[in-house]
């Protein structure tokens, strides 16, 4: 079986999921290949050229419209001899929408990576045209089944997962004598979802011996640096980190700090726990508390409560035994339920089930009538001021 996974190679969680899933599905006889759209002449991002061996880049000339781009995508799918596709909802709007137009004999699996209303609206727009839905967290599934009427029997939870052999148990770097806790933020530098503008306030409440490394890139990096300038060793900006360098980076830090407003199930959190880097993260119902059991293998704080986050870190700074206990338990949690083997087995079961007995779905639409359904078009929420949206997101998680 050969499956196209809609994604472009990049330094980020969705592509890490692809790489792990590709390796995990191979023993099941399923070949997973990435397939992505990009402007003509752009090519793959620097440092990721080797990923061309595992997928297909569909180049889109600048003068073509969405319908023409969709035709190019459809042509690549058919030419590739794929048995099915995996669409990551809202990763790309054309690729999300294309499942409504593909030939009826192709397997179509939708993956929902986030808990935002916009993501759910897009998922609902293509639901009649997919055979099954995978949610990366329990929260996603609960919301889609209970509030958006997704069929329970065709909506599953399969968590993002890691390859444990990349995270050796003996790989942790000891903290130098007399040094405070080494904190790490790893992810997209973006405030709306990641809450990065809370980092300066958290750090300001910590002992001067504590250090913070910020690894990643994003459109809010410049503003974050203005609010919290680099002052090594107290604050260090490490920039974007290649996937193969992530385990060593995590092993050099004691605490993974994640003040997010919303997530699906962040790969960085799973990776941190695999490395024994203790998670101190926002409590997101059905998301972070799906993997972190507060006080056992990590610690949770209310969204936006920088004082609580800092108090947790200060406590760990004076309780080495608890820090070590949480580190060991975090690793054990990943070993038990968040491995590539576990994730791949879940996907393989779904693919084979669809192939053997495909559920009845809506008939394909004609690509001549290409259009974006309402759930994939910009809605009122798109135009709300960012501060108001951020406030609403915080309120939603606290209720």
Automatic annotation (TrEMBL):
> What molecular functions are annotated in GO for this chain?
glycosyltransferase activity
What EC number(s) does the entry state? 2.4.-.-
Top-level taxon of the source organism: Bacteria
What keywords would UniProt list here?
A: Glycosyltransferase, Plasmid, Transferase
The cross-references to InterPro entries, in alphabetical order and at most eight, read: Glycosyltransferase_grp1
What is the name of the protein in this document? Glycosyltransferase family 4 protein
Provide the species name: Shinella sumterensis
């Amino acid at each position: 079986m050969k499956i196209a996974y809609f994604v472009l190679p990049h330094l980020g969680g969705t592509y890490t999921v692809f790489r792990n899933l590709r390796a995990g599905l191979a023993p099941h006889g399923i070949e997973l290949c990435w397939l992505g759209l990009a402007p003509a002449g752009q090519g793959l991002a620097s440092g990721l050229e080797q990923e061309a061996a595992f997928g297909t880049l569909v180049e889109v000339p600048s003068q073509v419209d969405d319908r023409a781009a969709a035709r190019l995508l459809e042509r690549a799918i058919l030419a590739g001899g794929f048995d099915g596709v995996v669409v990551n909802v809202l990763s790309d709007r054309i690729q999300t929408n294309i499942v409504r137009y593909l030939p009826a004999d192709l397997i179509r699996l939708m993956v929902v990576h986030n808990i935002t209303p916009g993501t759910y609206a897009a998922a609902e727009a293509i639901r009649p045209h997919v055979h099954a839905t995978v949610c990366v967290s329990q929260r996603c599934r609960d919301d889609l089944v209970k509030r958006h009427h997704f069929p329970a029997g065709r909506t599953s939870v399969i968590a993002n997962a890691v390859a444990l052999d990349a995270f050796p148990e003996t790989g942790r770097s000891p903290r130098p004598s007399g040094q405070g806790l080494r904190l790490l933020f790893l992810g997209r530098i973006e405030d709306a979802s990641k809450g990065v503008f809370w980092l300066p306030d958290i750090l300001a409440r910590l002992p001067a011996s504590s250090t913070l490394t910020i690894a990643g890139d994003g459109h809010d990096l410049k503003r974050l640096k203005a609010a919290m300038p680099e002052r090594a060793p107290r604050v260090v900006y490490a920039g974007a980190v290649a996937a193969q360098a992530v385990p060593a980076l995590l092993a050099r830090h004691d605490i993974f700090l994640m003040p997010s407003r919303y997530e699906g199930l962040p790969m960085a959190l799973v990776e941190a726990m695999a490395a024994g880097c203790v998670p101190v993260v926002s409590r997101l119902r059905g998301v972070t508390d799906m993997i972190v059991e507060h006080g056992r293998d990590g610690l949770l704080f209310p969204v936006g409560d920088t004082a609580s986050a800092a108090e947790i870190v200060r406590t760990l700074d004076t309780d080495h035994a608890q820090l070590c206990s949480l580190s060991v338990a975090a690793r054990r949690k990943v070993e038990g339920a968040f491995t590539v083997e576990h994730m791949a087995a879940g996907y393989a079961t779904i693919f084979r089930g669809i192939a053997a007995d495909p559920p009845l779905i809506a008939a394909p639409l004609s690509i001549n009538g290409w259009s974006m359904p309402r759930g994939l078009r910009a809605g009122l929420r798109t135009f709300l001021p960012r501060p108001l949206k951020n406030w609403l997101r915080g309120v939603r998680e606290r209720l």
